[in-house]
Amino acid sequence: MIELRTGDFEAFFQAPSHAYGQDSLYVSPMRADLARFLSPVENPLFQSPDDIAFFTAHRNGFPVGRITAHIHRASNARHNETRAHFGFFDCGDDPDAARALLTYAETWAKARGMTEIAGNFNLTAMQQAGVVTDGFDAAPYTDQIYNPPHIVRLLEANGYARDFPMTTSEIDLQSLDPARLLGPKQKAHLASGEYSFAPVNRKTLAARMEDARVILNASFTDNPMFVPVSAEEFHFQAKEMKAILDTRISVVLMRKGAPVGAVIAIPDLNPLVRATGARLRWSTPWHYLRYRLTRRRAVIIFQGVMPDFHGAGLNPLMLWHVLSAMKQAGYHKVGGTWIADVNAASLRQLEKVGGKPLHRLHLFRKALA
After folding, report:
1. Of 85, 223, 286, 328, which cross-links 121 as Cys (Cβ 3.0–4.6 Å)?
2. How far apart are CA 362 and CA 189, in angstroms?
3. 0.90 exceeded by the pTM?
4. In the CATH scheme, what is the homologous superfamily, with its name and number, of domain 2-167?
5. For 298-349, how does the pLDDT look when each residue is reduced to its tens digit (9 = 90+)?
6. H or E element: which one contains 314?
7. For the structural domain made of 171-358, what CATH number should be given?
C-alpha cells in the first residue's frame, strides 16, 4: 500500500537512493542546496509560499518516490500560459507509487487554476530540465538531469506525452585541438586589440557574474521557455560557486572594456557529491582535497554573446580560450547542458568543436481536464 506525505524533506532527499539503488548513475544535489531550492521563503523564484509543494510516496515505511509541483508565475506571464511544472520526479519501477505522485501533483495544479502540467523542471528551464529518454548508460555531469529508463514508461502510462526534444553533450578534450576554432574572424579580433578576456576569479566574481547575467538575459531572450533571470535569482543559484570555482576555466569577453560575451564553466562536482553522499560531513574537506587531485571533467553551464555581436564569430573565440585553458589545466572531457533541437545554431557550434550527444531528453506534458 502506498502512503503519500507532503513536506517531508528528509524523505524527499532520500527517495532516489531507495528508488534507484546505490549502483544508479543518478547524482543528488547537495542536501543543503536542495533544501534552499525548495524553500518558498529562501528561493526568489517563488512569489508566494503557495507556489510550490513537494510530495513523497512511501511503501512499507520507506520513501520510494518523490515529486515537486510548482508554478513559475513569471514564465506563465511571459508566455501567456496557465502551466504548472513538476520536477524532481524520481520513482522506483512502481506503477502505483508513480500514479499516486503524478495524480497528487496534477490535483495540486488544477486546484490553482492550471490547465496543463509539464516537466521535469528542477526548477526552471534555465536549470535542470527534461526527462532522459536515451543515453541511459552515460554518467551525467553537474547540472545535467538523469533518470533510469522506467521513468519514461511510468510517465507515458499516466497520460504524459513527449515534447520539446533536447540533447546534452560531451567534448573529448584530449582529441581536440582548440586552434581549429580560430578562423579569419577570430584571428582578426585577436589582432585588433579591441578584445580582452576578463578572468572570473574570487576577487572579480561578483562583477563578472553580473556581467554574465546581463549577457544571459540578452542572448537567450528569443529562446523557447526563456524567462529573464533577476539578479536575486541568479546570485541565489550561484551562491556556492565561489567555493567550487576553478578560476582558469570561465571568462567574460570584453570589447573596449564592455562585456560582450561569457562562458561560465565549473568542474564536474558529481564525483565529489557521490563521495560525500550529498551531505556536508566532517570528512567532506578530505574528500574535496582528494577530488581536486583527480578531477578530469568540467561542464559549461552556459555561453552567450550580446545580440549586437551575433554573427561576429565571438562564440568560437571564447570557446578557443576556455577549451585551451581546460586542456592546460588537465581536464580530459567537458560536458554541456541541454540544447533544444530547435536551436540549430548552437547545435552547429557544438559540431564544430567535436561535441557528441550524451543524453537525449524530452519534456513530458499533460493537459489537465
Report:
1. 85
2. 38
3. yes
4. Gcn5-related N-acetyltransferase (GNAT) (3.40.630.30)
5. 999 999 999 999 999 999 999 999 999 999 999 999 999 999 999 998 898 8
6. helix 314-328
7. 3.40.630.30
